């Protein structure tokens, strides 16, 4: 089952946009990358400028250097394509079936929650003189962040709490994982989420 965290994990920042590479889109929809690109090729009018970004050589190289899952792109003779939010929504009108519907809903929810979270973070600093409004915004921000980070984690006897400073509020996310390396992975996911909603964050 595709969930919001599956989608969020695939998002990368490219040219100041949150996009998903064609190979990752294929993974989410459980099809081959060639099927995604074929759908685009067969429906050119549905993908005007701004819906899909073709990476240049420099962007492709940076992608391979920073994301292990893209190592296979290193020796590819073609540059990958990245779907913007609009492109993903348009692709959803082409791909059919229960899996496609489930994945599309997860994509829509992920983008909506990230957009709302970014808006909440922006509004917090605008209401410094109204503590009640600030508190309401902080609570909503924490709720959104928690929803974005929710996953089906196996229940274990030991718990680990990870605290994320996101702008002016903290999210304390208690996780139950089997292995230490999975805790490390979650911390990396938290850091990536912070970068996604605040691209200028360290």
What is the element layout, followed by pairings?
Layout: H1 4-10, E1 12-14, E2 17-21, H2 22-29, H3 33-42, E3 52-54, H4 57-66, E4 81-83, H5 85-92, H6 98-124, H7 131-149, E5 160-166, E6 169-175, H8 180-197
Antiparallel strand pairs: 1-2, 2-4, 3-4, 5-6
Helix pairs in contact: 1-6, 2-3, 5-6, 6-7
Protein described:
The protein has 202 residues and is α+β, with helices and mostly antiparallel strands. The protein has one domain. The chain has eight helices and six strands, in the order αββααβαβαααββα. Strands 1-2-4-3 form a four-stranded antiparallel sheet. The chain starts with a helix and ends in a 5-residue tail after the last helix. The relative contact order is 0.13. About 14% of the residues have low confidence.
